[in-house]
Amino acid sequence: MIIAIDGPAASGKGTLGKRLAAHYHFRHLDTGVIYRAVAKALLDAGADPADEERAIAAALELDPEKFGHPLLKTRPIGEAASVVSTFPKVREALLTFQRQFASEPPGAVLDGRDIGTVICPHADVKIFVEADPVVRARRRTLEARARGEEADEAVVLADILKRDERDRNRPVAPLKAAADAHVLDNSHLDIEAGLKAAIAIVEAARLRPDRA
Can you say whether residue 192 is alpha, beta or left, with left for phi > 0 and alpha for psi between -120 and 50 degrees? Predict the structure, then answer.
């Protein structure tokens, strides 16, 4: 089974993806980390994230062993990742890796912005997680402060709105809910309530006649 989870920045899709994967004993991939890893490689080399050729080269040389680096969660890396993710050839270079991950048993949960529409259009379950931008900014600010970083909630909100605009209007794989996705509004749900709602969606899908 493949579970595709999409949604904007700080909507809670990553936490939901991890919890769902643990619940079903599936493998989990936060696809945003892939783009963050590309962005970090560029910044480490002193390159501009807007340098498309360097971004493509970094994507082709991606090392999955580095996906757990703590700096990948920082705001500068996130901003740079939002830039490199707009390049069609970068997305193309990372497409095979993501689909290969999704295809391996016993099952996989992938979260990102184009999983249900591009990476795994035939996923068994598609969930599009939404949350109010103000709520998302608050969550992202608290996460940053918990890591010991300084964070201004107004600045974080402005950044989230800018990223939403960029993600929704990029020419390749824009952020949008797949036609057959279940929309889950996560604005006022805690982690357990969000997980419970997502499990209900997955279980309903497992009981569909076409899966018998």
Answer: alpha
